[in-house]
Design goal:
Elements lengths: L1 H22 L7 E2 L4 E2 L8 H6 L1 H12 L4 H14 L7 E9 L3 H12 L31 E2 L35 E4 L10 H4 L16 E7 L2 E4 L5 H18 L4 E5 L20 H9 L6 E4 L1 H7 L15 H14 L11 E8 L2 H6 L2 H4 L3 E7 L4 E7 L2 E5 L25 E6 L6 E6 L2 H5 L9 E6 L5 H4 L3 H7 L4 E5 L2 H4 L2 H9 L4 H9 L1
Parallel strand pairs: 8-9, 8-17, 15-16, 15-17
Antiparallel strand pairs: 1-2, 3-4, 3-5, 3-6, 6-7, 10-11, 12-13, 12-14, 14-16
Amino acid sequence: MKNLRIDAIVFILIISVLGILNFFNFDKPEISVLENRALRSKPEFSMKELLQGVYLKSYEDYYSDTFIFRDSLVKANRDLRHAMEFLGPDVTLITAYDDIQKPEEAYEQAQSDMAGDLDGKGVGNSALSEAGNVPNDGLSDGGGNSTANGNGNSGISTPGGLGGEEIANGGMNGMTGETGSSVAGKVNSDASAERTASETGAAEEEIEKDFGDGQDVGYWLVVDGKAVQLFKFNKESFEYYSQILNKYSQKMGSGVKIYSMIPPTASEFVQLKRYKGITDSQNDALGFLKSKLDKSITSVNVYDTLNEHKDEYIYFRTDHHWTALGAYYAYASFMEAKQEQPVPLVQYEKLDLGNYLGSSYTKTLNKSLEKNPDNFIAYKPFTNYEYIMHYGKDEEEADVIDMKYADQISNKYLTFISSGGGTWSVIKTDVHNGKRIMVIKDSFGNALVPFLLPHYEEIYVVDARFYSIKATGKTIVEFAHDKGIDELLFVIYMEDVNWHKFMSGVDSLLGSEEQAETVKTD
């Protein structure tokens, strides 16, 4: 009993000391280098928000984010849990809850950030908080993406992580629906996910797709040093995507040719024999969509092309994006859809930017991902160009392959078109053929755009999260007509198509009739 009292006193003493140190720590961090995200700022007091319970929740998130020694404690906790796991290949299921800013909110936040330290030139630009999109587009996007409570890392999702449960002989039962929580389950097997039932000596069982409720829930499987994003087909979301693109086709008119490109997630091309029941077929989802799009819209078949090259390094292991090589194959598919010849990859200068720990790692802090970093490769354009990024009324010149991000181990994806943020951007080349294309994209489009330079005189880049009718004074249709756009390419990856909030942002660029009238009279 005496020892118990001593233990309790020591525990209370440690907590008290840390609390006092944290109280007098006025130099609160703004960025978590470990998690590669901007931390919550101190909320302004509001009696209305206090009564609604919003203020206390926001302050709790701020306190948690800025607690003294937080990064060190998070990493120590992860390492301790990893050390307690059984040796051998592990499989981890991770669930996180995503949120997304509306375009107008993202624009206003971006303008605010640009006036401060987080101006898009380093880690933590909130304008890039995607749909999963911390600066490297977090996991949406979705992109992103960031979590509903503002935390890019929804708990410590390691094997047997916080709130985790084992998945053995059953499905993903027991997943919480609590905002900002995390579930990580270790599959009880000393075998890798590639093994068949005959190799393991056990009957092959499918894991049920019990995904819980809500469209804002994302799932990833970490297996043998690779993270893959799982897919749950949402029929209504795909119908919504087709309705939006059909609306674009109608409003743009016959003078603008529209293309639809939907990059699949890496899980579609990874052999997950034992866990095949955990994810829906993305190919079937694309087949469903094809009949819904207007005949004037051309679907770019990147699926078959990527499937042909699935044994190549087309997706990152520690990031949800495709690699530059995967983006090149997608570009080749686009050229095929246009009945044009792609530029051979050998014509590009290959840039090796070293090790990369991307969005999947910063989201999960998974130890097996940390031990197996990606090798980041970019391809330098040979076409002469001028690249201007517009932030509201401000603009800045940038590089299509922006080497200022090359040394940032968790931010290298920002190398592609210098993060792809901004209200809108334009690349003007010396290819004087009069062709002008607009790319409406999520972060998957960032790696694709550099390959378009040899084919167009002007390339306009729009991220649906950051374009602002308020800032430009034009709906996206008016903007396209004003710039003389001939082609419109949508590059929105599978999970963002499946995410109603993201597509709602794409829809909002068209503006309501009231917005259009306001723009015309301003």
